[in-house]
Recover the amino acids of this structure.
């Protein structure tokens, strides 16, 4: 009781910093005391703490739902469930990078989500660091620009996924893949459309893949000044397209992509992400029914 009295004697701004901004655990009895405190600031703080509780419950429910595919597999006896996703299919430059992650059972990390939905780069890096620390194991796989131009971007993405899975230090019992199936892989797997938004393991893999590729493009930025790779990471933004036209193509530009070929004066051979739309449709249909 004495400690509660000491807390209530502190300025409301200090309590707000502790229990809202810094998200510290709220001592027993403090919320009720704030709700009957005649000070307007105290009652306002109580409402914010209540809102924090509701938000935490909602986040907990979201994270539980994000584990539904994993929970189904764990109950079937699959212990090590790996999630796999890639980053960098659309850029005009740089490799495509895949991540593979095996999370502990019932793992819940606040903020875990599809990397594309996490707009704050610092938040993505924080999540990646925590995932790497907590994961049973994790790995990344690269498919370089030369492989993209030789195989096409679709098959290069699959190659990066193969390398990521094979790089895991423990053998997965089952693999969940974003939208596709990994070829020449004998262990059980399932492709999930929009898996990076529906599966915790795939979401974690997407964050690992995205942050790894972004860090790689920052290194490329230091090698090639004037192209702005630190900001656009090789994606076909207006900034990148202007630099490409003004400065020309680099060795790390994908020569199988139409915008790069146009700058080089070559005929276009690939106008989108996938050379064979029928092949893509078949893969997506397979992922939905497998």
């Amino acid at each position: 009781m004495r400690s509660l009295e000491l807390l209530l004697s502190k300025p409301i701004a200090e309590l707000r910093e502790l229990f809202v901004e810094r998200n510290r655990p709220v001592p027993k009895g403090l919320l009720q005391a704030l709700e009957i405190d005649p000070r307007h600031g105290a009652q306002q703080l109580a409402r914010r703490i209540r809102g924090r509780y509701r938000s935490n419950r909602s986040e907990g429910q979201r994270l539980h739902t994000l584990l539904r595919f994993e929970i189904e597999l764990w109950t079937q006896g699959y212990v090590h469930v790996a999630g796999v996703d890639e980053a960098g299919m659309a850029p005009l430059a740089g490799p495509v990078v895949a991540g593979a992650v095996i999370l502990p059972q019932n793992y819940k990390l606040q903020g875990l989500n599809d990397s594309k939905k996490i707009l704050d780069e610092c938040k993505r890096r924080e999540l990646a660091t925590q995932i790497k620390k907590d994961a049973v194991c994790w790995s990344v796989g690269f498919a370089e620009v030369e492989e993209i131009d030789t195989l096409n971007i679709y098959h290069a993405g699959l190659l990066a996924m193969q390398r990521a899975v094979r790089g895991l230090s423990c053998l997965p019992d089952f693999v969940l893949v974003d939208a596709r199936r990994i070829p020449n892989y004998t262990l059980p797997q399932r492709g999930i459309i929009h898996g990076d938004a529906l599966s915790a393991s795939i979401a974690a893999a997407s964050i690992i893949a995205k942050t790894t590729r972004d860090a790689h493009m920052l290194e490329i930025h230091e090698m090639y000044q004037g192209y702005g790779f630190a900001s656009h990471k090789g994606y076909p933004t207006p900034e990148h397209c202007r630099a490409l036209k003004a400065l020309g193509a680099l060795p790390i530009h994908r020569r199988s992509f139409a915008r790069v070929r146009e700058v080089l004066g070559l005929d276009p051979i690939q106008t989108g992400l996938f050379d064979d739309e029928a092949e893509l449709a078949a893969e997506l249909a397979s992922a939905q029914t497998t």
Notes: Residues 2-65 form one domain. The radius of gyration is 24 Å. The chain has three domains: 2-65, 68-212+275-289, 219-264. The mean pLDDT is 90.
